């Protein structure tokens, strides 16, 4: 399961609205757990993919800077997020090919009709993604 503080959830959704028609992306921060993680903040990053309308890619140097900022804030990396402006919330084959953080969450927000955020834990190349329950709480 992954729990989002309402503000972090809203930040991901509104970033998706503002970034459309391109995919937006970033890093999720909070408290990491092997079975359950809590997101208290979403750190946006630039999407530097060649085709940002259908792909996302975080520059490795920017990713490292964001991870350092998260750690300096006393938080942990929980996972990553990106949007699928035309849906669906399920990870694509490209998402699976590029997933690298085994045991971490990959949240995807889709806007096909209304915003919906789904999340999957990457269990590695052999197991793939496992869907998580998403809970949003007011803090």
Automatic annotation (TrEMBL):
Quote one Gene Ontology molecular function term. metallopeptidase activity
Q: Name one GO biological process term.
A: proteolysis
Q: What InterPro entries does this protein's entry cite?
A: JAB_dom_prok, JAMM/MPN+_dom, Metalloprotease_DSAMP, MPN, VirAsm_ModProt
Name the SUPFAM superfamilies on file.
JAB1/MPN domain
Instruction: Give the record's keywords alphabetically.
Output: Hydrolase, Metal-binding, Metalloprotease, Protease, Zinc
Name of the featured protein: Desampylase
Q: Which residues form the MPN domain?
A: 2-126
- Protein species of origin: Halolamina salina
Alphabetized Pfam families for the sequence: Prok-JAB
